[in-house]
């Protein structure tokens, strides 16, 4: 689980830093800039957004505005992040089930 929390913190810091320029870009509509700030404007907001991305399953609602209004490069990051985090979570859950199964099998013998 430390890996998952570390990935969320890294993602939050990365997005908070990378989107700072987009929040002040006059070429992007003010509503879109406000939405980017609402989601990623500070480290706290960005970290909370990454908790939502990781555990809520609503990550397309967060990723799509960034991809459409700021840059398509964020699609690559989100695809990689979701793939890596889901793989890590599935491995952790599988390991816990396997541990419990082996403990029950050892107790029965």
**Helical region count?**
6
Give Rg in angstroms: 18 Å
Please bin the fraction of helical residues. Answer: over 70%
Termini separation comes to 32 Å
Along the chain, the helix and strand elements come as HHHHHH
The coarse overall form would be elongated
Total number of β-strand segments? 0
* Category from helices, strands and their pairing: mainly alpha
The portion of residues forming beta strands comes to under 5%
| Largest sheet geometry | none
Whole-number average pLDDT? Answer: 85
Q: Which regions have little confidence, pLDDT < 50, spanning 5+ residues?
A: none
Please, could you describe this protein's structure?
The mean pLDDT is 85. The chain is built from six helices and no strands. The two termini are 32 Å apart. It has 109 residues and is an all-alpha fold. The longest helix has 36 residues, at 73-108. Helix 1 (2-18) packs across helix 4 (43-55), helix 3 packs across helix 4 (43-55) and helix 5 (59-70) runs antiparallel to helix 6 (73-108).
């Amino acid at each position: 689980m430390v890996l998952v929390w570390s990935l969320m913190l890294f993602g939050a810091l990365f997005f908070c830093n990378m989107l700072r320029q987009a929040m002040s870009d006059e070429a992007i509509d003010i509503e879109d800039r406000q939405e980017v700030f609402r989601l990623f404007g500070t480290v706290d907001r960005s970290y909370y957004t990454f908790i939502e991305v990781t555990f809520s399953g609503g990550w397309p609602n967060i990723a799509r505005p960034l991809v459409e209004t700021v840059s398509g490069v964020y699609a690559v990051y989100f695809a990689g992040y979701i793939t890596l985090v889901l793989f890590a979570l599935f491995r952790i859950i599988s390991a816990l089930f396997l541990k419990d199964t082996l403990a029950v099998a050892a107790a029965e013998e």
